[in-house]
Amino acid sequence: MLPLSPFTQCLGILLLFTLPIFKWLRIRYTKQAGKNTVQATKDITTPQKRPESQPLSSQRDEVDPSRDNIDPTAAMQPYQPYDAFLVLDVEATCQPGTDFDYANEIIEWPVCLLRWKHKDKNGNASRLEIVDEFRSFVKPVWRPQLSSFCTALTGITQDNVDSAPLFHTLLHTSFHDFLARNGLIDAVTGARLVPFCWCTDGPWDVRDFVVKQCFISKIRLPPWLSGDVMDVRRVVTRWLEKNDPQRRATGSVAFTSPRRKSLPITRQLHLLGLGAFEGRQHCGIDDTRNVARIVIELARQGMPLRANTPVNPRRRWQWMGKNGKVLEEFVRPATPTL
Ligand SMILES: *[C@@H]1O[C@H](CO)[C@@H](O)[C@H](O)[C@H]1NC(C)=O
Q: Would the pTM of this model clear 0.90, i.e. be above it?
């Protein structure tokens, strides 16, 4: 016997007995997780390792018949963990002079669904296409009257929102149906069926606007909306770093966030060589379609598309009181001008 103190011996014996219990609990938990649909979500957070690379010759046999159409300037196809992308660019209520701390309410919910045209058996892909689109206006509850500033900015009229569904209704009816119809979530349980990622211009749409709206609407974030968000602007910045020879030569690393803020959609389109913005800026569906063009181009250029923006559903702003109440005294400007 090793010369152990009585205390250490006791500890050892204790561990000897408790470890199997922990192990048993773990197995039980994992089994249950499998039974529920947590499995699907698990695949997203830890994308499964790709099988070993195939020799090129056998890969060549795999490619689809439309291979001749492949753009020869397209870069190599990286491994892409997600199967689908939901591009979202919400419009929200605003007042002149309000910033990202305001109690914004979502008034337009526009989504473009992108899928790979072809993904090889290793999960490598580079060609995305828009396969479906969703758009609805949303009726605000805290400040049902839109400011003229907001209407001028977004083009959304009072009539648009007056006849629109409330946010929680939208999420649980027509938008839920959209996701289910496209095979992204289970129609009954709402569990994810395939790994998909939200794509937004900047980190704000899901991380801030959706979290604020869920508070005001007194609902929980649906599980299919509480993670896997890709800030597209940040990926464009990464792409710039990779493709700007001067930047590469000087070896400078990531841009700081102020620079990122000054990279509006129009500028991103220009930098990627995609030409002009199509449609009306700050119209949610037009913004969304243009962000979708950017995502498609980033994929074509061989950028890996991954989640890069954590969402905290419990994040709180100063104006948040109890049970979804907006504390007027904390909302700036104090006296809204309609
Ligand atoms: C597939 O992706 C892996 C990892 O990103 C990469 O190393 C490989 O070269 C890719 N294959 C092709 C054919 O582009």
A: no
